Amino acid sequence: MKDINIVKHKMSRIMAMNHARLFRSRIVGNDEVSSVFRRTFAAGAKKKGAKGGAAGDAPKASILSKEVKSSTVVGANILKEGADPKVLADSEYPDWLFHLIDKRPALSELRRRNVETLPYEDLKRFVKLDNRARIKENNSIKAKN
């Protein structure tokens, strides 16, 4: 009796797989598959062996005037409706903004300094860079073995 149930189970699985294949071929027929994988070319594409550069390959001159470029942050608008923000005077920006471009010390320089006298921000940077260097070193040792 067990053997008959096993055979029935296997037959039902085979039939289910065949039905799935049948439905798949019905849903995506050969015409659709060939149209999906058919290679097409763009209109006006450069023909093979044509000499000389296309007219559209040359760099185009900017259509924005120098006044607009100097008074607005061109390309900073991320919204569909809106305009690029205007450039403000330095006094209208927060103080922390200008410290973003300050050079921060490298790990080698931080290792030369006394850790106990480091400012908090430099200490955080030292711990982060030191951990990163140790992880890289351990990974390279594991890769060699």
Automatic annotation (TrEMBL):
One of its GO terms (cellular component) is mitochondrial large ribosomal subunit. One of its GO terms (molecular function) is structural constituent of ribosome. It is found in: Mitochondrion. Its main location: mitochondrion. Keywords: Mitochondrion, Ribonucleoprotein, Ribosomal protein, Transit peptide. Pfam families: Ribosomal_L37. Belongs to the mitochondrion-specific ribosomal protein mL54 family. This is Large ribosomal subunit protein mL54. It comes from Cannabis sativa (Hemp).
